[in-house]
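If you are new to this repository, start here. Below is one unmodified record pulled from the training split, so you can see the exact layout before writing a loader.
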Amino acid sequence: MPDLTLHLSETAHKTLINLVETSGETMQTVLDKAIENYRRYIFLVQANQAFAALRENEELWQEELAERGLWDQILADEEEE
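And here is the target side for that same chain:
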């Protein structure tokens, strides 16, 4: 993989060095983990926004609740078997 140059603010660079020293991990590992955590955060923010939009649409929300009820019944039936 080619080397890349990345420009960081002084504050971000100091924080990164502190994390490397504290964790004992490499700078690359700390950056990889930070990026993955941010990717997951963005995913959850978008999922929450989509869920909020679903809740605001009464017709779609009722369909969602009905489907959940069906799944609850299916799961309950499987437990009885």
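Two things worth knowing about this chain: Residues 42 and 54 are 18 Å apart (CA to CA). The chain has a mean pLDDT of 94.
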